[in-house]
Amino acid sequence: MNEDEVMQYINFSVGEQIFALRIDQVHEIIRMVEVTTVPFGSPEIRGFASLYGKVVSVVSLRVLLGMPEQEDTSSTRIIVVPYKNGFVPLVVDMVDSVVTYDRFEEPAEEHRRFMIGVFDKIGFCADHRAGILNLDVLLGSLVRS
After folding, report:
1. Residue ranges of the CheW-like domain (predicted)?
2. What is the pTM of this model?
């Protein structure tokens, strides 16, 4: 068995799409916090919030992936991921479960519709499939924009 076959993943939704991150790539999952918006800011930055005693930019994964923003619901969560000596809070529509995938495939063209390289691979289990996000590509595009 290789490392992917025993690794657990956090499943979450943005729109109708199911995404996943390796559990070791997730620092914490929290309920939505108050976010202070900034006029004329980058559209994927929802605003700023106080986390861990610091003011940090809160990123809308929905907008970062090219989807329209929507109102927060009781299911809206923030997935905090470590990135480049800090933490990036990502707003997602819903966190679903912890899963171990049965198999993996390289992303097909249909999975590249948001951004080239945003998926490391596609994970498959009995009842669904999920795009396994590549944080370096996803957040690297945020830093460059």
Report:
1. 6-144
2. 0.87
